[in-house]
Amino acid sequence: MLKSILITIVSITIAAAAIPAAAEPLHDGLPSQEELADNNELFLSLARKALKWEEPAEPTRIAGPLYFVGTEGLGVFLFTTSEGHILMNTGMPSSGPMIEDSIRKLGFAPEDIKVMINGHAHIDHAGAFAYLKDKYGAELAVMLEDVPAMESGDKNDFKYADDFVYPAVKVDRILRDGDTIKLGDIVMTAYLTPGHTRGATTWVADLALDGRSVVVTFPDGAGFNPGYRLTKNPSYPGIAEDYRRTHHFLEMLEPDIWLAQHNEYYDLNAKRERAKTEGLDAWIDPEGYRRFVAGKKRAFEDQVDIEMGVAQATAGASKTSVTVETFIRAETDSYFRNMEFGKLRHSRTMASIDEQDVVRMNRDTLYSSGVFDLDAAPVTVELPDPGSRFMSLQVISQDHYTTEVSYAPGTYTYSRDKVGTRYVFLIIRTLANPEDPADLAQANALQDAIVVN
């Protein structure tokens, strides 16, 4: 019983950082969130045991040239080609021999690994790169911002200092946002998605799997661990902005299959079991991906609220119970009820730092927004030509999905069939210079030129 509770607690802590930041123990005999944040060794020891980071797992063919070769708790993936193989991630420093065994069990040779790539430079994903590189000589390609961590064994980490160090490894190729890795007929694109680490990397590949073209995504960077500071005395300068950019980028992706560094994220065991009868379809999970990203974003904003004192200020307010099934709609409705209904409301000046609808409003952006009932009629938006000025239209459904983002002038129509829910939230962002009254007036004129029918 204690083990199952511990697994749940640590899993939630790592995967969503959703446990309230309170000093009370999470369960009798278990550490509090505060203790996990303050004691790095305690955090690591609990995670590695409860989440089975160092237990060998059965390797699995996911589809086509893509295989799982990780541990019970950690996602490590092999892409096989006629010109050699690509290995994504390792695990803890002890995982090297386990990964070798998994590759051989699948009928492949570790000697054929030509390129190694990673999601981010923490010990649980980069700990065995040195072992494998020393033994097989594969090229290691890493995002620029994570190179110092990889080559030092993650010394001087912004949260863990020297507590989670691992064998340092030389990086052969330095990646930048948008760079690609190509081997045989596999092409993978690396996107910088910082937050969890400065160089966290999301990988996207368009693969031919079992005769189908499938987009496979490995999201990274969106999660935060106990003790990360986001707003007050931030763990590193710009960390909150990094997280928000990462969340926005991940929201824009539309993968068919998504896999991740921690197996509980994408429910490896359940999908692997279903694949015995369903084949590739068991791994197709765009809705699960959207829930994953939404959960990361929500956990982040909740933590920001806690740091800013919002949670404490509202702790005494009356509450309505919300179930897992109703949570998304309840959250969205709580936002929608404060919006303009049936028409756009234009903010004519920049949001005050002291009076923001949400904590992440930009200080160089004017907002035009409204909620519309698509059962009454489809809504049509005409965006004017902003010239060289940035203007965007974001469409958010009642299920908290961004269904479309448009950046060009033109006419856009949204029905319930297209959006997927009865109500839709439209938000139009117009960039402006808050210190230039003339520029602000021009931006206001563009807002007035937006037509909604």
List keywords for this structure.
5-stranded mixed sheet; alpha+beta; 23% strand; 453 residues; 7-stranded mixed sheet; disordered N terminus; 31% helix
Summarize the structure.
The chain is of the alpha+beta class and 453 residues long. The chain has 15 helices and 20 strands.
Topology:
Elements: H1 2-15, H2 33-38, H3 40-50, E1 60-63, E2 66-68, E3 77-81, E4 84-88, H4 96-105, E5 113-117, H5 123-126, H6 129-136, E6 139-143, H7 147-152, E7 173-175, E8 180-183, E9 186-192, E10 201-209, E11 212-218, H8 239-252, E12 257-258, H9 263-266, H10 268-278, H11 286-308, H12 310-313, H13 327-336, E13 345-346, E14 365-373, E15 379-383, E16 391-397, E17 402-406, E18 410-414, H14 416-419, E19 423-431, H15 437-448, E20 451-452
Can you characterise this structure?
The chain has 453 residues and is an alpha+beta fold. It is 31% helix and 23% strand. The chain has helices at residues 2-15, 33-38, 40-50, 96-105, 123-126, 129-136, 147-152, 239-252, 263-266, 268-278, 286-308, 310-313, 327-336, 416-419, 437-448, and strands at 60-63, 66-68, 77-81, 84-88, 113-117, 139-143, 173-175, 180-183, 186-192, 201-209, 212-218, 257-258, 345-346, 365-373, 379-383, 391-397, 402-406, 410-414, 423-431, 451-452. The strands form four sheets. The chain has a seven-stranded mixed sheet, with helices on one face. Strands 8-9-10-11-12 form a five-stranded mixed sheet, with no helix packed on it. α1 crosses α3 and α8 (239-252) packs antiparallel against α11 (286-308). The chain starts with a helix and ends with a strand. Mean pLDDT is 87; it is low at 1-28 and 311-317.
